[in-house]
Design brief:
Strand order of the largest sheet: 8-7-6-9-10-11
Oligomer: single chain
Structural class: alpha/beta
Radius of gyration: 21 Å
Number of helices: 12
Largest sheet: 6 strands, parallel
Strand content: 15-25%
Number of domains: 2
């Protein structure tokens, strides 16, 4: 049987309650302080991953630091903590290790970890990109958009995931807006897209201004807090939030019924899989980064498939083909931990139409008053 492991960690202090329920009664600083003393541990045994071609088992192993700690603590310390989780995975019998959430962002994005372990390491970012783009395109279609007539913004476009999402979408959209903090890096990404697809992408360091002009948004920053608020989005916008922690504020769900927000990279896993751990998804579904690790194990591709901060469209397309071969597929849509069905999407469309009509009427009324 093939085998794999995947590193998980609490996104914030409140997330620790998934494993230690009593922690919800403690202050965040106390919980984070205690996490520094916890060893890497086996969180769950994953069984039943089965494709038409192979079967695999795996383990969730913990790196007990929050997202804030992984980004704020010294790189050397963080990498050592990730290595402890990797060494535990080796002892359990895993033949490949996947890095989850902020463990794949910390330090040099897995390169140092891979060099010091005896098993290959993958970040899962290639399949994350594949499913994010596929999910965004399908959600846009269901909302009535023709990609060739849309304006798409990629927030976090200078990052590895954002850049390749932008490259793939540039082949199909009318207008592409690259959003990031570094103008020079944005220019380099825009030049690359112009060379590869012929589309002259716009660039912006102003998230709020860029989103006001976008029909479709993919957001994939490494920000610890939310950066997209209800007032930033136009009526009928489709937003794919690939980031963990989320880039999109929960206020959007409460205040903007005319906007469709989906989670990037939610995948149905083949077989009678049991994760034996509640990470907030329906049974038999997982993040795409988790799925990439499983796909490589089933394919017996024990190699560091996605590593470091550079991705390629070729690898994204290759892992998508392998995932399809083994029966992995998009698991519908989810938004803020809840499933979205076709009726919910129809309600968003109706609300968007109503919002646009109201804005038109307000504009007419204003013009009449001015006259």
């Amino acid at each position: 049987m093939e085998s794999f492991a995947f590193v998980v960690h609490p996104l914030d202090a409140k997330d620790v309650a998934r494993k230690f329920p009593f922690s919800r009664f403690l202050p965040d600083r106390v919980v984070e302080g205690a996490l520094k003393y916890l060893p890497a541990m086996k969180v769950a045994h994953i069984t039943g991953v089965r494709s038409p071609h192979a079967e695999a088992e795996g383990w969730f192993v913990s790196c007990p630091l929050t997202a804030r700690q992984l980004m704020a603590l010294p790189d050397g310390y963080v990498i050592e903590r990730i290595l402890r989780a990797g060494r535990l995975a080796e002892r359990l019998g895993a033949k490949i290790l996947g890095l989850g959430a902020f463990t794949k962002v910390a330090g040099d994005a897995g390169v140092s970890v891979a060099k010091r372990l005896n098993i290959p390491v993958t970040t899962g970012n290639s399949y994350t990109v594949a499913t994010a783009v596929e999910g965004t395109k399908e959600a846009a279609r269901l909302m009535g958009y023709d990609l060739q007539e849309t304006s798409v913004a990629v927030v976090g476009a200078t990052g590895s995931i954002g850049r390749v999402c932008a490259e793939l979408l540039s082949r199909e959209v009318r207008e592409l807006i690259l959003v990031g903090r570094d103008l020079q890096k944005l220019t380099l990404v825009a030049d690359r897209i112009l060379y590869r697809s012929g589309l002259a992408a716009k660039i912006s360091t102003d998230v709020k201004k860029a989103l006001r002009n976008a029909d479709i948004v993919i957001t994939v920053t490494s920000a610890v807090g939310t950066i997209i608020e209800p007032e930033d989005l136009r009526p009928g916008a489709v937003v794919c939030d690939v980031a963990r922690p989320r880039d999109v504020s929960r206020r959007v769900a409460a205040e903007r019924p005319d906007v469709l927000v989906i989670e990037g990279g939610v995948v149905a896993v083949p077989g009678e899989v049991d994760f034996n751990f509640d990470f907030g998804f329906p049974p038999k579904t997982a993040y795409a980064c988790m799925a990439e690790t499983m796909v490589l194990a089933l394919e017996r591709r024990y190699e560091s498939f996605t590593l470091g901060r550079e991705l390629s469209t070729e690898k994204v397309e290759e892992i998508a083909a392998l995932a399809k071969k083994h029966g992995f597929k998009l698991a519908g849509f989810r938004s803020f931990e809840k499933a979205i069905d076709s009726d919910a999407i129809e309600r968003v469309k109706v609300a968007a139409k109503r919002m646009l009509q109201n804005r038109t009427l307000q504009g007419v009324s204003s013009s009449v008053s001015d006259w």
